[in-house]
Design brief:
The protein is an alpha/beta fold and about 300 residues long. It is about 55% helix and about 15% strand. β4, α8 and β5 form a beta-alpha-beta unit. α1 packs antiparallel against α12 and α12 crosses α13.
Length: about 300
Amino acid sequence: MLRDTLLVLTNQRAVRDFVTSNTMTRRVARRFVAGERPDEALAVARSLNQRGMAVTLDHLGENVHEAREAEAATQEYLAILERIKEAGLNGGISVKLTAMGLDLSEELTRENLSLLLEYASRCGGFVRVDMEGSAYTERTIQIVLEMRRRFDCVGTVLQSALYRTMQDLERLTAAGVRIRLVKGAYLEPKEIAFPKKADVDCSYIELMHVLLRRGDFPSIATHDERIINEAKRFARMHGIEPSRFEFQMLYGIRRDLQEQLVTEGYNVRVYIPYGNQWYPYLMRRMAERPANLLFVASNMLRR
């Protein structure tokens, strides 16, 4: 119930305006968002690289309404790819197709995404196409499959909450697409998604097993220690070396676990969001994990 309420509030303008203009909530949001400027995100990326972790940078923003906004987002990503290369960082970028113009035109989206992939291909970078709500799932997969025929440096994300995901995993792995597996942070109807957390978790583990055996350097994106331990156990049992996959975690969440996994010899990548459109991202993080909401509440009460 709490999760559903928080996800509904993600789209409430009055709540968004209050949260984003409030000094306390803006300060607390910095736990989960690296900053509003690229320089701040790059500084965080450099620090994490020095501690043995790879990074993925995400300029927050989605659902643009004009072509010029999509073009501006594309230019922002091109700039951050260039700065990652110039700084010699071990990192890539993550993009949402709605920020590239998917609500406006698939042709525009393809043009913008192609620009990013052409540059990433030349500079040795990597572009991960985020998965958004279920209304975008099929279109996202179709565009990613099309781009994979032209570029090796593209991957995407699958959500274990959706019933359809095993079929999508089969299609994408057959095409050699690198996959980040997540549980899912969108409010979806029970007709297309598991309504119970336990079922989402079971689906995640089943999908993870397939990815570890057959995926191309899959990303196990979770902070759930039970699932992480199962990934380790399954990999050992099937002779899957730690070099063949990575764990992914979000900036500001379970830093202790990130450090522990690096010490144990596993690949760890941290997802670093930045930008001024951080409200939807923050609300989804609160909905995903009650501990995050408690962190925000406790910090607000101390001020």
